[in-house]
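Quick start: what a row looks like.
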Amino acid sequence: MNLKEKKVKEYQDLVKSLEPRTNTLKNCLLAFFTGGVICDVGQAFLNLYSMYFPKDEAQTLTSITMIFLGAFLTGIGVYDKIGRFAGAGSIVPITGFANSIVSPAVEYKKEGFVFGVGSKMFLIAGPVLVYGISASILIGLVYYFVQVFPKI
């Protein structure tokens, strides 16, 4: 082992020793339970709305309410704290999508509505939308051709 390789190995060992340790089990449990709580809140709204509205309208109102809550909590700085605590448990539900749209908008509002909010709003969510819509179109086309030409 030459001097350069020895220095590289020493540096890698130093970096590894200073790297913070993660508790994967704890992080998974926090994500699971926090995501579950968010889903429970959504279910509570669905149950409430189902008493007064037909099923389709209750489901739509529940989605709207959860998106509003995610955006509102992001705007007042609470959702970021939930995200730091829960990790992926706060990203996966629909409230996480609202957070991914509102966070850049809030961060860049000082640059104005056009060049700040308008242009940066989909900074995080944009790729998710592009690839999600593209994948759904491709899957829809495959499904269509499987249905149209089932015997081929």
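That is the whole record. The chain has a mean pLDDT of 85. The radius of gyration is 22 Å.
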